[in-house]
Amino acid sequence: MKISIRLKLIIGYILFGIVGFILISSFTYKNALKSTTKSRAQSLYKEATSISQSYATEYYGNTLSAQEMKRILTSLSSFMDGEIWLVSSAGKITLSTDTSRVGTALDQFDVTDFGSHNYVIGDFYNIFSAEYLSVYAPVTTDYTVRGYVLIHLPMSAIESDALNLLNTAYLTYLFLMLILLGCMLLILFTWIRKMEKVKKHLKDYHNGNITTPITFSALDDISDITAYISYMEQRLGSLEEDQRNFISNISHDFRSPLTSLKGYIEAMLDGTIPPEMYNKYLKIVLTEAKRLSKLSESLLELNKTGSKGALLDITDFDLHQMIRSALMTFEGQCKEREIHFKLSLTGQKLFVSADMSKIQQILYNLIDNAIKFSFDQSDIHIETSIKGGKVFVSVKDHGAGIAKEDLPKIWDRFYKSDSSRGKDKKGSGIGLSIVKGIIQAHGENINVVSTVDAGTEFIFTLPLADREKL
């Protein structure tokens, strides 16, 4: 079942509201009741102390009559909405705002039950039928405790105050939830409108209706996504163009030798080429056939290097011997154009741990490119060095170079830069893609530095063989 982001947000908002309500109901009420009880107890204790130090002292000093004392206590009681007792040191109620309690003996009365807070909560020795907050203050005259002032307040009144605080918390929470809802709806509306625009754009692109890039003025996550989408579309468009160019180049590279083969064979068959010239033209046919074979093998290799499952045959071999052998293959081409190789190798031998055949292919590709794009009567420098357990190999030519805007694309499978800058226009443009694929399969790196009309340098790394590390 597909759940839209809107429904997820609504469900999340409702769950957030329910959880918040439960937390407020549980913790806020408990904390409010505890805080209110403590506050009222402190207030009542101050009142009880005031009564004990003034009116009760005068009462026990016989300067205040019992009737007058009763009137004062009743007045204070109505103001506090509670009961006030005057209890003798023996635990007998001598005065009370509730006359029915006068003379009642509190057999279990013990001031230590009040603890350090000077108040207790309960039915006060079974006197009350409900819970009360009871506070006491001793009445002292001449350093002698004559009795106690007790004030009792029903817990229902304190709970009512706590509920008022809870209701205030509910209203505040509701107000905040409404603000949050408004903000969420505003953000959701803006976000959905943008997402609908993005979805429509992607649908049009999927259906082949190429549209202008989508942009948003605000800097947010969706703007970043649209920027990535626009970049992806540009790259796809570029890859499609490169693919068309690649197919065009490959078609041309296949067509050219096939046309030659067809022409020479037909000329032999119809007698245009006499038998005594067969040997010369058969060599040309063989050369063109080798070109086709090499091109086919390059295409197959390109497909292999694009596969993550390609296996490597890792062995230790002498890289310097491989370089020298590879250079001998190109002696003929270099002699014709007076191109010379300059070697700067680290030692007579240098063993690396890699796939020998594939590294040989890398060297052939890079050297072939260097010759192809070098100026006549120039030098090609090949250098090896060791740094941090890695072997660095450099192939540097002095020739046409690569334009700055072409550098990021030279590794693409379907990209071929302007072949007219090279002396040899027969390349398929897939060699560097193969090179990078092989290097990455080894877990190594390859970089290029180039300046137009100055030359190009390719530098790649290989793992040093263990024997070289000893």
UniProtKB/TrEMBL annotation:
Q: Which InterPro entries match?
A: HATPase_C_sf, HATPase_dom, His_kinase_dom, HisK_dim/P_dom, HisK_dim/P_sf, HssS/ArlS-like, Sig_transdc_His_kin-like_C
Q: Residue limits of the Histidine kinase domain?
A: 249-466
Q: Which UniProt keywords apply?
A: ATP-binding, Cell membrane, Kinase, Membrane, Nucleotide-binding, Phosphoprotein, Transferase, Transmembrane, Transmembrane helix, Two-component regulatory system
Q: Extract the Pfam families matched here.
A: HATPase_c, HisKA
Predominant location of this chain? membrane
Which SUPFAM superfamilies does the UniProt record give? ATPase domain of HSP90 chaperone/DNA topoisomerase II/histidine kinase (SSF55874), Homodimeric domain of signal transducing histidine kinase (SSF47384)
- Could you tell me the membrane topology recorded for this protein? Multi-pass membrane protein
Residue stretches spanning the membrane: 7-29, 170-192
Q: What is its EC number?
A: 2.7.13.3
According to its UniProt entry, this protein's organism is Eubacterium oxidoreducens
- Which named protein is this? histidine kinase
The reaction(s) catalysed by this protein are:
ATP + protein L-histidine = ADP + protein N-phospho-L-histidine
Annotated Gene Ontology MF terms?
ATP binding; phosphorelay sensor kinase activity
Highest taxon, organism lineage = Bacteria
Q: Report the subcellular localization.
A: Cell membrane
Gene Ontology cellular-component annotations:
plasma membrane
